[in-house]
């Protein structure tokens, strides 16, 4: 690809990502999906233990609109600048959008993750069918299966420490990063929980222990602490930290690093 075409692709990817993020910030559909996901989490005994379900969620502020526009645009531009297929730029913008949803609401709607995964599969079918090279699709499917199996096993064996939204997020990360680098994708999926745990611990050390601190399945796992009742309040040893942004950062680093 020539330099002019590359610049056009980068600019177009950045603009498309910004438009997607700008739309998502005020989308009634996305808001409805998030509300439904929160209600599902609050009433489901399958996704978290009783202690986590009873914990009060912390008050979270909405991210500014410019963040919703800037982050997907920058992610798409960075990937488009080093990666050949424009498909990866679209994957990067959607991945960043999912991370923003998780960071703001501490949930990842099933409707969003399913549509995103279906879009990637359809795009891979079109791209691979046109080129005759089915290797990227096979690697994507294999790595997605590995990620889903690993995180799904974590979810099954340690109920209350991981949300199903994180399992779907890990699958989506693997779908895009897996074809670029199998080793890098596995490293990103392994490092994300560790990075989240470190951030949760560091943030928790700055909080005053007398105040109620909320949690969710992922947050409790990342913080390495389970909620407990003391003086009639729910407390955890660290601040609630969503796993999605760390998974997204890991996946983006794999794709960009492979392209460089």
Question: What's the short version?
Answer:
The chain has 260 residues and is mostly helical. The chain is built from eleven helices and two strands, in the order H-H-H-H-H-H-H-H-H-H-E-E-H.
As a whole number of angstroms, the C-alpha radius of gyration is 19 Å
Question: Largest beta sheet, briefly?
Answer: 2 strands, antiparallel
Q: How many discrete structural domains?
A: 1
Oligomer: single chain
Average of the residue pLDDT scores: 80
What low-confidence regions span 5 or more consecutive residues with pLDDT below 50? 45-59, 208-236
CA(first)-CA(last) distance: 15 Å
* Dominant shape: globular
Helix and strand element order:
HHHHHHHHHHEEH
The main sheet orders its strands as: 1-2
Helix/strand-derived category reads mainly alpha
Could you tell me the strand content as a percent range?
under 5%
Structure description:
Helices cover 72% and strands 2% of the residues. With 260 residues, the protein is mainly α. The protein has one domain (3-259). A two-stranded antiparallel sheet has the order 1-2. Strand 1 (228-230) and strand 2 form a beta hairpin.
């Amino acid at each position: 690809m020539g330099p002019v075409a590359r610049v056009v692709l980068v600019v177009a990817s950045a603009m498309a990502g910004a438009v997607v993020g700008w739309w998502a910030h005020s989308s009634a559909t996305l808001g409805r999906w998030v509300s439904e996901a929160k209600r599902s989490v609050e009433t489901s005994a399958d996704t978290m233990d009783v202690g986590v379900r009873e914990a009060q969620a912390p008050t979270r502020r909405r991210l500014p609109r410019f963040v919703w526009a800037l982050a997907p645009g920058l992610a798409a531009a960075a990937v488009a600048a080093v990666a050949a297929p424009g498909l990866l730029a679209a994957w990067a913008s959607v991945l960043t959008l999912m991370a923003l949803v998780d960071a703001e609401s501490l949930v990842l709607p099933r409707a969003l993750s399913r549509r995103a995964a279906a879009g990637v599969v359809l795009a891979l079918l079109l791209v691979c069918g046109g080129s005759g090279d089915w290797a990227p699709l096979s690697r994507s499917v294999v790595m997605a299966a590995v990620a889903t199996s690993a995180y799904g096993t974590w979810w099954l064996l340690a109920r209350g420490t991981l949300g199903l939204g994180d399992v779907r997020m890990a699958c989506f990360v693997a779908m895009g990063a897996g074809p670029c680098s199998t080793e890098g994708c596995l490293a990103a999926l392994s490092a994300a929980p560790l990075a989240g745990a470190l951030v949760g611990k560091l943030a928790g050390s700055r909080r005053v222990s007398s105040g109620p601190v909320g949690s969710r399945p992922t947050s409790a796992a990342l913080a390495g602490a389970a909620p407990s009742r003391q003086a009639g309040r729910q407390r955890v040893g660290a601040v609630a930290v969503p796993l999605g942004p760390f998974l997204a950062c890991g996946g983006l680093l794999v794709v960009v690093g492979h392209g460089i």
